[in-house]
Amino acid sequence: MRFPRSSDHELLDVIDRYVNPTVNGTARYLHLLHGNFLHDDEDVRAPFLQSLRSAAQAITDDELEILLESEWRSRLTAAWLIGASRREHFRDVLGDMLLDSRLCFSGQGYCFALAHFCTEADALHLAAYLERYLQRPDCQYDQHWAMSALLHIDSRAGTEYATRFLTPGGMWQRWNEAQFKPSVPSRFIDDLCALIDSPR
Asked: Across-strand partners of 22?
């Protein structure tokens, strides 16, 4: 992993330009974390989304790869920028990183990007993640994000990849009931994608 160090000017420059820019005093990655911008007032959300879209168009593939080598804030932000600009050539990279789940929070961004690409190939990555981590009740990682992303793709692509996980007594129910605060699957990624795609 490439950690931000004072000697790594290349990484620090990319972080300063794409991860840490602020809107209304809050860094970009904090707006993205947990999809927090979904709950912002419109006078905060509108300039944030404009800033995010501009960054998604401006950042190069090489800069995205630099961020994906670093810590969770950088990976989270890179994944959102990849998803917002629909750079589908990163699909397998993000799918593999999601399955590895080596860092906290960054998986949220991978799930968003795969949902926003919205193809059967993306559904397969999400299903592979759920197949592995719904069998781990000790791991409360990004299962809710992956399920929401898979439901989003199913609803738009006419697929049914989520169905087998959601059968009564099935993998989702068993994993969910083992959590401290069980909750039903949510369609929140529908709302996140709609905001990203909303007119400027």
From this structure: 27
Residues of the chain with pLDDT under 50: none
pTM of the model: 0.96
Taking the mean position of all CA atoms in its chain, how far away is CA 143?
A: 12
8 A C-beta contact, residue 38 and residue 192 = yes
Residues 6 or more apart in contact with residue 177 via CB below 8 angstroms: none
pLDDT at 6: 87
Tens-place pLDDT, residues 104-163: 999 999 999 999 999 999 999 999 999 999 999 998 899 999 999 999 999 999 999 999
The tokens for 7 are 């000697």
Residue 32 token pair: 């993205």
Q: Tokens for 91?
A: 């699909």
Q: Which residue has the tokens 């912002």?
A: 40
Q: Are 51 and 23 in contact (CB under 8 A)?
A: yes
Distance CA 72, CA 105 (A): 7
In 3D space, the residue among 160, 156, 82, 164 whose CA is nearest the CA of residue 118 turns out to be 156
CB burial of 85-106 (b: ≥16 within 10 Å; e: otherwise) equals bebbebbebbbebbbebebebb
